[in-house]
Specification:
The complex is a heterodimer of chains A (239) and B (265). By secondary structure, chain A is α/β, with parallel strands linked by helices. Chain A contains six helices and ten strands. The chains are: A alpha/beta (239), B alpha/beta (265).
Chain lengths: 239, 265
């Protein structure tokens, strides 16, 4: 089967011009992810896990290598794709879930969550209904739905963020510690949503500080620790 | 070394705006040096850079207020072919009046301060050929409502209004004819923070609901980060870096961009 994502020789480092110095984040990484597969990234702080996710999403520019993505419009190298294609793929096929909400002034929680559906062309009433369903699923109180999330607690903001990020199915989902600082109910709802998306064929690459939460979803573990064997068979994940 | 990016392969839509090799000097001062830019329909392009970097000059070029020494400018619109810099004054004025909207940092440049606010917006419709009074009034009112102007003040002249309200009148005037391209020159500079948020929110809503293509110039990186899909960084009249907004802010490549991004509070 053709993989959804085929990463070949991916290398990323940062140049800090004011220090006149370069820092390597990771180099020559290669692995592939199939539809419905869940890959856990492992490694100590600073091993480059988040950097890898951001490079795949193109928030960071890779320095070498290929990121071949099997989009609905054919194979495309995300490392070299034009900005406009990346914008389009982010709206339609590639999702990124972080623990941080980008709240905007004067936008209600439900409007913020509904926005990806509105951008995809769904009418406002239907999009808002779906948004409310997900806010409820992740445990955001209904009195908060019309309020501005800029005033919410950290945990509530994160729930809004998850509802927004997961409201639409994606072909590829990048997960950067989405369970951090969530309460048990919200965590269970998130894991259920991820399991459903996985069953629908979404490929996932994730970083989890407590991988026990998603243990039953993990198909493969990739260790980014320098000099570690890059790819491991699935093992019991340390909880 | 950064990989060279390919052209679009998935998105087949033609760019709305294409500027190619634009050069402009005022005497011995180089204002723009070989600037090229592309904006796709529905996209928001942010332009950042220090004072004197040429960003406002570039915006005025797009509004055909200036003619470059060299370069071309095309808009992908029906009945509009060739280099827009070659148009005569009358054709330029008609094009800007009907298809391009602009909001200046200084409302005095965009508004007749002593005419009524609704009259300022209606003037735009008049230039485009609308003569029926009731239609003028209704369309001006709708545009002012869309930019969240308080409708009980329709007849107040801008000179009696606050800075934030004046920006709303400019915005209403700019969007009255559903422009293909909306140009914004420091639209929130000088406004207090709560009013800034109101203006930003209005722009964000226009972007979401009407998919208006925008080019926004600002030295406020927060404004650009909130609105822009893509960012172009200018310095001394030249483009030093361009990319997706999150990439420019999280992984700036050029020394000047790094300096700019790291200087943000």
């Amino acid at each position: 089967m053709t993989p959804v994502l085929d990463i070949r020789g991916l290398t990323k480092g940062f140049t800090m011009h004011h220090l006149g110095q370069g820092f390597a984040a990771f180099s020559d990484i290669s692995f592939a992810v199939a539809a419905g597969e869940f890959v856990l990234l492992k490694g100590a702080n600073g091993a480059g896990k988040s950097t890898l996710l951001r490079t795949l999403y193109r928030s960071y520019l890779p320095q070498a290598g290929q990121v071949l993505f099997q989009s609905a419009h054919g194979l495309i190298d995300l490392a070299r794709a034009a900005d406009i294609d990346i914008t389009y793929l982010r709206q339609t096929e590639i999702g990124f879930v972080t623990q941080f909400l980008v709240a905007r002034p004067r936008i209600s929680a439900e409007a913020l969550v509904a926005e990806p559906l509105r951008l995809a062309g769904m009418g406002e009433p239907e999009a808002l209904d779906t948004a409310r369903h997900w806010l409820q699923t992740f445990g955001v109180k209904d009195t908060l739905w019309p309020a501005y999330p800029t005033t919410f607690s950290g945990g509530e903001q994160q729930k809004v963020n998850l509802a927004r990020a997961l409201i639409r199915p994606h072909k590829l989902l990048l997960l950067d510690e989405p369970t951090a600082s969530l309460d048990a109910n919200a965590r269970a709802a998130l894991v259920q949503r991820l399991a459903d998306l996985k069953a629908q064929g979404t490929a996932m690459i994730g970083v989890f500080h407590h991988p026990g939460d998603v243990e039953h979803l993990i198909d493969r573990v990739i260790d980014l620790t320098p000099n570690a064997p890059l790819q491991e068979e699935r093992q019991d994940v340390a909880v | 070394m950064t990989l060279t990016l390919d052209g679009p392969r998935i998105v087949k839509t033609a760019p709305l705006v294409q500027l190619r090799g634009v050069n402009k000097s005022y005497g011995s001062v180089v204002a723009l040096c070989d600037v090229s830019a592309t904006v796709y329909p529905g996209e928001v392009l942010g332009i950042v850079g220090e004072s004197g970097s040429g960003k406002s000059t570039l915006l005025r070029m797009m509004n055909l207020e200036e003619t470059p020494d060299a370069g071309s400018y095309t808009l992908d619109l029906p009945d509009l072919d060739g280099n827009l810099f070659d148009l005569d004054r009358f054709a330029r004025r008609m094009l800007c009046a009907t298809r391009i909207g602009i909001v200046y940092q200084n409302p005095h440049l965009g508004l007749l301060m002593k005419n009524s606010s609704s009259g300022n917006v209606a003037e735009r419709l008049l230039v485009a050929g609308e003569r029926r009074f009731a239609v003028l009034r209704e369309k001006a009112r709708a545009a002012l409502a869309a930019s969240e102007f308080p409708l009980e003040r329709l007849d107040a002249p801008p000179i009696e209004l606050s800075g934030g309200m004046q920006q709303r009148v400019q915005l209403a005037k700019a969007i009255a004819l559903e422009p293909a391209l909306l140009l914004l020159d420091e639209p929130t500079t000088g406004l207090d923070v709560s009013v800034q948020a109101l203006v930003l929110d209005t722009l964000k809503r226009l972007q979401r609901d009407r998919h208006i293509t925008m080019v926004i110039v600002s030295h406020d990186l927060g404004v650009i980060r909130t609105l822009a899909d893509r960012v172009m960084v200018m310095r001394r009249g030249a483009v030093v870096e361009a990319g997706l907004a999150d990439q420019i802010f999280q992984d700036p490549q050029h020394p000047y961009t790094q300096q700019l991004v790291h200087a943000k509070l």
